[in-house]
Amino acid sequence: MSADGPPQGAKAPSGGSAAHEVASVGATYIGRFAPSPTGLLHAGSLVAALASWLDARARGGRWLVRIEDVDTPRCVPGAAETILEQLAACSLIPDEAPVWQSRRGDFYQQALDRLVARGDAYPCACSRKDIELALAGQGRSHERHAELVYPGTCRHGLGGRPARAWRFRTRDEIVTWQDRRLGPQQQDVGREVGDFVLRRADGLWAYQLAVVVDDGLQGVTHVVRGEDLADNTARQILLQRALGLPTPGYLHTPLVLGANGEKLSKQNGALPLDLRDPLHALNAAARTLGLAEAQGPVTHALGAWQARWRDSYNRPGD
Ligand SMILES: [Zn+2]
C-alpha cells in the first residue's frame, strides 16, 4: 500500500465509512488547490492557487494540495513535481504532503461499490455512437459543451450487452447551492447533464467521483477554484449526498482570458509561470482577484493580501 493508501483500520464502505467519519470532524477550515498535471502552472491556474491559499490563511485554516492525475493519459510526466516547485517559488506551501489521485483507486472503488449497493450507480454498455443514435431516435440532438446528455438507455439493464462504464443515477430534482462570488446557483442535472459517468469505459475514474471522494476523505470544508469548474458543482453535490458526505462551501474565482477571449490554457498560449519573478506573477493573480498590487518580498505581499482578503471575501455564513 502506498503512502496514499487507506489509513490503518479504514472500514469497508458500509454504514459509517471512513470517508464520512473523517469529513465530519469539527469545523476547522480545510481548503485545497487541486491542479491537474496536464501542463505547468500558468497565470490562470495561479489565480485559483492564490485564492484558495488566501481563503485558508485568512480563516486560520489548513491548505492542502492534491494532484489530480486521475486522467493519466493526459498527464505530462514531471509536470506535478514542477507545479509543486512553482507553488513553492511563490511561497504557497501546503500544510501536508500532497496526495496523488492516481494512487487512490481503492477509495474510488469503495465509493462506487457503495453507490451501486444503494442503487445510485449502474453499468452502461453504450458507446458514444449508441448514445447519439438513441438521442436521434428521441428527436434530440442537444449537445452540451460537446458532451451528449445521456438518454438513460441502460437505466433498466444492459439487455445482454457487456458493461463498459458506470454511471450515476440522477433523480428528478433541481440542485441549488450558494457560490460566494457568483451568488445563488442551480442545475437540473438529470435534464441538463443526464446520468453522468463515474468510471469510464477505459477503466479510468471520472473526475467527479475522485474529487468528491477526496474532498470527503481530506475533510475539505471550502472549495475555492476557477469559474470554469463551477458547472461541475451540482454533480458533485449529488455525489456528496449519495455518499453521506458534507457539502463544502464554494467560491469560484474569475478566469484569466487568453488572446482569443477564452479561458487561458495551454491550448491558447498560456506560458508557464516565470519563476525568476514570482512577485510579478502573484501580483497579476492578485489583480484578477480584485486585490491591489503589493510590494515584495513575496511573503510580505502574501500577508498584505491575506489581510485584504479577510476584509473583502468573508461574509457571515460563507
Ligand atoms: Zn448505456
List keywords for this structure.
single chain; disordered N terminus; three-stranded antiparallel beta sheet; alpha/beta; elongated; binds zinc ion; Rossmann fold; 10 helices
Compounds present? zinc ion
Q: What low-confidence regions span 5 or more consecutive residues with pLDDT below 50? A: 1-26
Q: Judging from the principal axes of the Cα atoms, what is the shape? A: elongated
**Strand portion, in percent?**
5-15%
Mean pLDDT: 88
* CATH class category label: Alpha Beta
Radius of gyration based on Cα positions: 20 Å
Total individual domains: 1
* SS field, number of helical segments: 10
* Sheet of most strands: 5 strands, parallel
A few lines on this structure:
The protein has a single domain, classed as HUPs (Rossmann fold), CATH 3.40.50. The chain is built from ten helices and twelve strands.
Question: Could you walk me through the main structural features you see in this protein, from its secondary elements to its overall organization?
Answer:
There is one protein chain. Helix 2 (43-58) crosses helix 10, helix 4 (105-118) crosses helix 7 (207-217) and helix 7 (207-217) crosses helix 8 (233-242). 34% of the residues lie in helices and 15% in strands. By secondary structure, it is of the alpha/beta class. The chain has 10 helices and 12 strands. The strands form 4 sheets. Strands 3-2-1-11-12 form a 5-stranded parallel sheet. It has a 3-stranded antiparallel sheet with strand order 4-7-10. The radius of gyration is 20 Å and the shape is elongated. Residues 1-26 have low confidence and may be disordered. The chain has a single domain, classed as HUPs (Rossmann fold, 3-Layer(aba) Sandwich), CATH 3.40.50. The chain binds zinc ion (ZN). Residues 124-126, 153-154 line the site of zinc ion (ZN).
